[in-house]
Amino acid sequence: MPDSSTEVTAAGIARLAGVGRAAVSNWRRRHPDFPKPVGGTEASPSFALPEVEQWLRDQGKLAEVPLRERVWQQLSGHPDGAVTALVHAGCALLLVRDRPTAWLEMAAVSDARMAEVLPVALDHVLTNRFGEGRAVPTPTASALLPSVPLLRATAELAAEAGTRPAFDFLFGRQLDANPRQYTLTPPGLAELMADLAQPAGDAARRGGGSDSRTVLDPAAGTGSLLCAVGRPTALYAQEADPGLSALTALRLALHTQGSGADAPTLTARTGDTLRTDAFPGLTVDTVLCHPPFNERNWGHDDLAYDPRWEYGFPARTESELAWVQHALAHLREGGTAVVLMPPAAASRRSGRRIRADLLRRGALRAVIALPAGAAPPYGIPLHIWVLRKPGAGRPPAPELLVVDAAESEASGAPAGRDRLDWPAVRGAVLDAWTPFDAPGRREPVEERPGTSRAVPVIELLDDDVDLAPARHLPPPATGGDAAELARVRERLDDTLRLTARLTPPPAVPGEQARRPVTTVGELARAGALHLRTGSGAGSGTAPVLTEHDVLAGTGPSGTPSVPAGSPEEEPLLLEPGDVVVPVVGGGSVARVVDEATAGAVLGRNLQLLRPDPAALDPWFLAGFLRGTANNRQASSYASTATRLDARRIQVPRLPLDEQRRYGERFSVLAAFEDALREAGRLGGQLVQGMYDGLTDGSVAPE
């Protein structure tokens, strides 16, 4: 298939050029030479990718399309759909990694001949890696023919970045492009669940490694949980969706070593796990599971006499308790299961008998409440249940560990996606779990008010069997004692005095003469500034400046969203003088990066404007970015959000000295705004502390 057959939508064009979709619509209206649609519909047309690239290049809006973008556009425009194309690309990457010489020989022939010889080579690699009955069928020659140009480009990307990072990039783009189609398990959560499943007393617990073991994920989804397991001997995965099952199998294969004695066994199957278990009779050391929540059609009417319901037959509304018992049924004695659960499963009356039996028999070992934003649905503080298969001759565990990471200081920034300090959350949870799970423990576990407690099982076996951690924890220290409140009041006094000093003087009327203006887009084309969009990608310890941080005026609080080694763009590190604005829903907000924020990674949904200090003053630029009228004319509106196209924002053409005069004034206004924000925070802390102190008796009413 010639490269000219690859089509791209308006959204794809916006991604190539680093602009919003509204800008693409404007280009189509304003430029008669903009490429004509070659497909799609009237409401959602598609365009020939080479024509679009050439037009963007001619207009100075695109220097060169990165290889990864070219490969993604070929994949997303595949005639058989992106999932089929991604499966073909994953098979080719597995061949490139495991049989590089064979790939080079096949890549030297014509496209038609390559499509003919590839199935035999792919079948050999897939059978060697997955065995028979695998989730990844061998593509036929006719199915592969349209994919050959994509496979060649994918191999080129693998040569540049590596086979695993190449697939991770393409798979990640597919997930980002279809957010409602997939339920994701974020990397930080997957690592925490894998840590909790490690054998008791494992010295490598905090290093991300573990003793070799067999691991099953019965609701594998995108494979994140199994990818987080260190040094397994065997991995088993089952997923109901055939396309996702194939993609997950390929992801796992590329995340583990190829053929050889040291390679873990990898078995992936397709099917409805609860109705049609692909691994009957299998027992493993560990089960990790992020099941679908709130399913009514999970098989209640068909599975009434299933032997898995050892702890009770789940109600129709308790699908999560069916998954819990499925996990226990696949554990060897003493094996550990870690299951992500909705918080309602800990307290719904319909599940109280099963919860009670799990406690009586010692199968449920811990219930951990996570901060909201840990995983979809992001507005709900989900729970992790840690379970252990009871063994013959072992007395039931007398205690249940409850941990409330949702209320701990480790949860960091306010609830929400991409705002969690995962290393801190992980540390808080493991600091409670590790001593509780210590082999041969005899001493009582330290109680941490508001965070963790080992609760005697007898206390939980009441009429409700409510396992919500917050209900069984002693209240945290309120900070409402008189001495602490006095310190808060002193800081508030200092902040209010600073606010008074920074209050702007009376406004002086200015001349209304019309000034010549330019736009941010024109300044970028002239080289006066560089415009970039953040992704939150990165590695190492550098924090991420998130959208929430910019809106709230706080320090960087996020963690990188892309694992190290991914071919996603290099982390975009902030420098002093950079100007950052939110892309979506931010309104009139702009932030000038200072020395304290410099070095952080630019997060998602943020645009960076890096002015040339010889041409533009950053505070001058930030001030005009915040103008209400400016934001109004540069924003596009959808049904649920406002999107800012920074290229359309207008800035007066002024000499640098005049810019600095404006910049100084804008800088003082920003300091005044920060002081007001801090005063509001301290005032709220003082008020709540007084309420808490008066109600708990640590403050007298006089």
UniProtKB/TrEMBL annotation:
Per the UniProt record, the source organism is: [Kitasatospora] papulosa
Q: Which UniProt keywords apply?
A: DNA-binding, Methyltransferase, Restriction system, Transferase
InterPro entries in the cross-refs: DNA_methylase_A-5 (IPR003356), Restrct_endonuc_typeI_TRD_sf (IPR044946), SAM-dependent_MTases_sf (IPR029063), Type-I_RE_MTase_Subunit (IPR052916)
UniProt name for this protein: N-6 DNA methylase
Domain DNA methylase adenine-specific residues, every copy: 185-409
In terms of PANTHER family, this protein maps to: TYPE I RESTRICTION ENZYME HINDI METHYLASE SUBUNIT, TYPE I RESTRICTION ENZYME HINDVIIP M PROTEIN-RELATED
Please give the Gene Ontology molecular function terms for this protein. methyltransferase activity
Q: Which GO terms describe its biological process?
A: methylation
